[in-house]
Structures are given as structure tokens and as C-alpha cells.
Design brief:
Blueprint: H1 2-22, H2 35-63, H3 70-77, H4 81-105, H5 107-117, H6 132-149, H7 153-171, H8 188-191, H9 212-217, H10 241-263
Helix pairs in contact: 2-6, 4-5, 4-6, 4-7, 5-10
Length: about 260
């Protein structure tokens, strides 16, 4: 498995690094600050994703059997794969949209998501800087509806590849314009605004793959002729992987102590 992950990393680097050099949105180093930290996230995050995916599915089927409707699952799986894929994207991204808004709006959840928003230089590898608790939380909202609906294995295979490709694309430091597709497929033009330091913009563009969800719920922000120039958050997040793992818990403990002192 490790060899496959290494191959995947090399392939992604071979695709995105030249694109980011030739079509750079912002002038920045390929091996930016914290690049090594995000490489660690790439490898560890893969194993966490595999493990949590299996656990989530097991919990979904063992604890909520009445929700599983075999007739519905057979109907869904009997559809053409292309149609299933479109449905899977919408269903999974609806779950992600809800989870993502909660990560921004619930204070203790934000402590985990802040790690991802600590990125100050956007590129393809920035996609993987996700705290494991954040990763598990969002996968629950994405995976369980898809399994309950019973999409076919072929659909799953296509969706997993598409989902990964979009995640790297939307964080990439590239200035491509996608025309009308930008309303149907998430792009850097859409997602970079979510990471910007413009005060009101980080609470926009919550979808990961289907931007029309933000248009539907009034959280869309995608100006036609400008892009953000500054990314990150005001919070001070540790630079290394281990420090970022402990940051949310230490922050919550600090907040709890502060509230306790205020009351007593």
C-alpha cells in the first residue's frame, strides 16, 4: 500500500507542479514553507481515510439497519453509472456542505478546521492539511448517505477518483478560467475565496464539488475579475504536524479555563 501512495504522490506532483509553474496564479516557491509538513499529511491522511471509511460504513449498517432500504438500493444501483455518479456527487456534497458549515459555525469544531485554514500559500498539496478529527467528521456526512443509497462499486470507484482530483484542483495555484463549468464544478476561482483573509469571505463557498449548493443557500462568492491575494487566519497555529495535531485540544482547554475563571 505504501508503494501505491508514493506512486500517487509522484503522479500528482508531476501533474500539478508544472501546471503551477506555467499557469501560476501567484508567484511563489514550489517547495514553500510548511511543504514538508503537508507531505506528512498526505501520507498519514491516506491511511486515516481508509480506516475511517471502513469504520463509518460498519457503524452505519450495524446501528441503523431500519434506514437501509434494499429495494431503494437496488433501484439506485440499477441506474446507468453516469447517472449514479451525478447523483453521488450531489448527495455527498450536500452532506459535505452541512458538515463544512458546522465546522465554521460551531466554535469547538472550528478549532479542528482552523488547521486547514492556517494555509498561507495555496497550492495542490494544501488540500491534504486536514486534522484527523476534521477528516473523520466530514467523511461521516459524505459516506453514510452514499452507502445507505446503495451506489454500485463502479460508481464508487469513479466518485473516489473524482473527489480526490477536485480536492487537489481547487487548492491549486493556477489561474485557469473554466467558463460556465465554474457553476457546476468547483474550481480554484471558487475555492480560493473560501481561504482568503477578506473578513466576510471565509464563510462563503462551503461546497467541495458542486458550487450550485452555495448559490442555492446564499453562500456563494465568486467575483468574475479578481482573486484573493492573501490567505490564512489570524489565529496562531503551530507550524509542525505534531503541534497542529494537539492545537485544537490545547485551544479548547485554554478556552474552558478562561470561561471557568470568568464564572468563578
Amino acid at each position: 500500500m505504501l508503494l501505491e501512495i508514493v506512486k500517487g504522490f509522484i503522479i500528482l506532483a508531476a501533474i500539478f507542479i508544472p501546471l503551477e509553474i506555467i499557469f501560476a496564479l501567484h508567484s511563489q516557491k514550489v517547495f514553500r514553507r510548511d511543504w514538508k509538513t503537508d507531505v506528512i499529511y498526505f501520507f498519514i491522511g491516506h491511511f486515516i481515510g481508509k480506516a475511517t471509511g471502513a469504520i463509518i460504513v460498519a457503524i452505519a449498517f450495524s446501528h441503523f439497519p431500519p434506514i437501509v432500504n434494499l429495494e431503494l438500493q437496488n433501484t439506485v444501483a440499477s441506474q446507468p453509472v453516469f447517472l449514479q455518479f451525478l447523483e453521488a456527487v450531489i448527495v455527498a456534497d450536500m452532506g459535505y456542505y452541512i458538515a463544512h458549515r458546522l465546522l465554521h459555525e460551531v466554535p469547538w469544531l472550528w478549532q479542528f478546521h482552523a488547521v486547514h485554514h492556517s494555509i498561507e500559500h495555496m497550492d495542490w498539496l494544501a488540500a491534504v492539511r486536514v486534522h484527523p478529527c476534521d477528516q473523520v467528521f466530514t467523511r461521516i456526512w459524505q459516506i453514510i448517505p452514499l452507502y445507505w443509497l446503495g451506489f454500485s462499486q463502479a460508481t464508487w470507484a469513479i466518485y473516489v477518483l473524482y473527489s480526490a482530483a477536485i480536492a487537489f484542483l481547487i487548492h491549486a495555484n493556477i489561474k485557469f478560467k473554466f467558463g460556465m463549468l465554474k457553476w457546476l464544478i468547483a474550481t480554484p476561482q471558487f475555492h480560493h475565496w473560501h481561504h482568503s483573509q477578506v473578513p466576510f469571505v471565509p464563510n462563503k463557498n462551503f461546497a467541495a464539488q458542486f458550487p450550485l449548493l452555495d448559490l442555492l443557500f446564499g453562500t456563494m462568492y465568486m467575483p468574475a475579475k479578481k482573486m484573493p491575494h492573501k490567505y490564512g487566519i489570524s489565529d496562531s497555529i503551530p507550524a509542525g504536524y505534531v503541534g497542529q495535531m494537539f492545537y485544537p485540544f490545547l485551544r479548547m482547554m485554554k478556552n474552558a479555563k478562561s470561561k471557568f475563571k470568568t464564572r468563578y
